[in-house]
Amino acid sequence: MPDAITIDLVSDTASRPTAGMRRAMAEAPVGDEQRGEDPTVNALNERVADLLGQEAAMFLPSGTMCNQVAIATHCRAGDEIIAAEGAHIDGAEGAGAAVFAGSFVRTIACSRGIFTADDVAAALRMRHAKVPRTRLVEIEQSNNHGGGSVWRRAEIVPVVEAARANGLALHMDGARLLNAVVASGEAASSTTALFDSVWLDLSKGLGCPVGGVLAGSRGFIAEADVWKHRFGGAMRQAGIIAAAGLYALDHHVERLAEDHDNAQRFATRIEQLPGIVLEAPVETNLVFFDVGGTGRNAGEIGDALLRQGIRLHVQSDRRIRAVTHLDITTADIDRAADALEKVLLAGY
Ligand SMILES: Cc1ncc(COP(=O)(O)O)c(C=O)c1O
């Protein structure tokens, strides 16, 4: 975070590697990852495949690359991907599906980013030479733009069944998968094993500096490996960064509950402020709120807070997001809520 910012709620990507994580990185045994010879990367891949109930996994530099490698592996030119409105693959990956796979995302309007088997059925197209081929159903766990909402197993299973009944592949964007697991108490593999591809991000709530791990069947990962090389995602002594992932899986998963409590604490404070409306109930570490009713522009509010060293993510004239993570304490939350109150009530 820039020096002047002392409380960075812009994203969970703002978290910095801890001293313990840095030590684990420094001491990691390494080898040539591109040749499959890095023992730390191999250990991370096995650990994540096991956690997600999949046969194999591959370490990649980012979550975006996990999505794009998966899409390029599943889809061919002219294919269509079904996802919730606001999906990261639709609006935040530079139209990668179109650029790399010649495919496009068709979004489903739904509450909190969670759709149903009926929504999938309604989005299906007739099979005809002149009609795009629906190929893939994608869900985000947790759903970012839906407010960090958590797909429960009972919501996922019918969607999986609808996709399977229609010959569609399934992909899970798990940028904040372990936040969802901690919030729901449902084991990751109880849902992730149902998907053809699924990944989790290391550089968000888990606090690593870089990386994501994409998992699937052995056959899927072998195909995906071609795309990993095409994208330039194959690395060398990457064990140094994979070690951060192993460390995070040991030390930073259960503590995600603290981030969720802090997000809830922030939400409870700010929803009492005049003109502020929470967009969705807080389930994990994301808080989206609408400041339209304050009569102030979100950008102005964001700037006023920034002058006090507090950064939020201003997403439109009226929409703001706050994200908690391992560098945010309960005291930080109270300071941020106090500052927002002063900005609104005293016009700072
Ligand atoms: C839901 C979702 N998917 C994918 C990504 C991309 O992850 P990365 O920043 O690691 O490329 C993000 C990042 O914010 C995200 O929120």
In words, what does this structure look like?
- With 348 residues, the protein is an alpha/beta fold.
- The chain has 2 domains: 19-251, Type I PLP-dependent aspartate aminotransferase-like (Major domain) (Aspartate Aminotransferase, domain 2); 255-345, Aspartate Aminotransferase, domain 1.
- Helices cover 41% and strands 17% of the residues.
- It contains 14 helices and 13 strands.
- It has a 7-stranded mixed sheet, with helices on both faces. Strands 9-10-13-12 form a 4-stranded antiparallel sheet. A two-stranded parallel sheet has the order 1-11.
- A hairpin with a 7-residue loop joins strand 9 (277-278) and strand 10 (286-290).
- Helix 1 crosses helix 11 (239-251) and helix 2 runs parallel beside helix 11 (239-251).
- It is globular and about 60 Å long.
- The site of pyridoxal-5'-phosphate has 12 residues, from helix 3.
Features:
348 residues, alpha/beta, Aspartate Aminotransferase, domain 2, Aspartate Aminotransferase, domain 1, 2 domains, four-stranded antiparallel sheet, binds pyridoxal-5'-phosphate
